[in-house]
Amino acid sequence: MARTKNRGLQQSFSPSYTVRCWRLGAYIRLSKEDLKKAREGKDDSNSVKNQRDLLGDFYFNHQDEFESITEYVDDGHTGTDANREDFQRLLSDVMSGKINCVIVKDLSRFARNYSDAGSLIDNLFVQMGVRFISLAENVDSYRDPDSVSSIIVPITNVMNDQYCYQTSKKIRQVFDYKRRNGQYIGAFAPYGYVKHPKDKHQLIIDPDAAEIVKLIFSLFLKGTSKRAIALYLNEHGVPSPSAYKLQKGIPVSTRGYDDPMWGARMIHSILANPNYTGDLAQGRSRVKSYKVHEVESVPREEWVEVAGTHEAIIDYETFDKVQALLQRDTRTSPKGREVHLFSGFLKCADCGRAITRSVGNNNNVYYACSTYKNRSRTACTMHSIKHNRLEAAVLFAVQQQIHLAVSYSEMIARINTAPVKKSQSIRLEELIAAKERELAKISRYKQSLYQDWKDGEITQQDYRDMKADYERQAIALTDVLARLNAERAELANGVKSEHPALVAFTKHQNIDQLSRELLVELIDHIKVYENGNISVRFKFADEFRRIAEYIEINTTKPAVAG
After folding, report:
1. Class of domain 193-326
2. pLDDT tens sequence across 101-116
3. In a designed cystine with 141, which of 132, 417, 538, 541 is the match (CB 3.0 to 4.6 A)?
4. What would be the CATH architecture of the domain defined by 22-176?
5. In angstroms, what is the C-alpha Rg of the chain?
6. Which pTM was predicted?
């Protein structure tokens, strides 16, 4: 669930679903009977040309969904179904991942009997995550998963199979309804919570366990490694989640979660669980289908998340900081219990790889390029910098950025109290107009490509390459336009002195020491140069640039005509 820094308003919402980009395999089959009819002039509807035109038209009308198309043709001369050459090539490409979507004119083109088709579609394709489209039957396993159920079941098992399917479907619908309405449907409450005695779909805080959850988050933010946190809890006699629940007589899963000792993986699971913010995040895993009972992870965008369903143990700000730290390289030495201050933040300014920590003579700590240290002395240079110098330089940079944020806040306050406030940027309007023209031109070029291919003016390979290039350009332009329009909207609405980017820095006035919590909140990365200089890439860099433009627009006097 996307969250802004302004947490004042809690609301429920449905998840958004990520549209995948498919690699299409178009399968065409002309049977011996079809071939005979075509030669006798009786029926040409199943000809290779007609099938190709139908599949090609579908691809053209939906080309934004597909990144490539590969054609497979068996023309009636390739023997039995089992030995169809291009059909076997199609299956091989499915297995290798070259294609992840199969399209046919109708089901009879794909397989000679109902059972074989059902076996492939309902088993192999589901397991491989392959989309199946049959135009005549209006089947699309991705757009309309229910459409597959009409063709996948052998006739002899229709009744039993349909009963299982409908039962599974109804259960899923009930679960989805409860998830979207903020009801907890897990069999066991997350550690730190228990189920409400009068409502099993409602979570309430377990005070004792909740304190341990808070301790885990606090220790991690202070730089303690996940391994060290587990060691600390074990050494202080804190029972693991399963052991704690058994002691309290709370229901607990016995499937892989009965370890009486804390471990790093267990700590990670707690640190990454968004339920501790008071929001329900469910549907994070699922079985492939009612027949294939393998569990697969679900992308974050497809989770069912509902805000403010129960009391929070961890606030949003703390949780977001922890997630940012989890994304960084926080490795420690085998005996180490603390994550080093700059771990995961340092990059070589030349090769772009990590700058790593070392301890030299007299326990002097310094940092050097990992490429130079571990890979090749000729591929990069050392980029060495001592810890004390690095820490002082970063602290100074942070203090300067805080000072800038304070100044911006004061100027914005004065601007916003002025009688007239400007909100337009000529530069921005011109840029948006130019990018929109460029995007429209790319769209026209892309639309004409298919016809050029059909008319024989370009080869199929040229068509694929040019289409892919235009799509890349369109995506890049769309991203740029989204950013520019966001800037325009912000300028039109004005900027408040309490802007989240400014608040993030101004609340740290008079800081005299660095911490990992501070670094993860304010800094994206730090580059180290060969001469020992550094550059700090702060978070909110784009926001600061827009704020600076807003200030410039509203403090620059218009030129007076001579």
Report:
1. alpha beta
2. 999 988 777 765 555 6
3. 132
4. 3-Layer(aba) Sandwich (3.40)
5. 30
6. 0.49
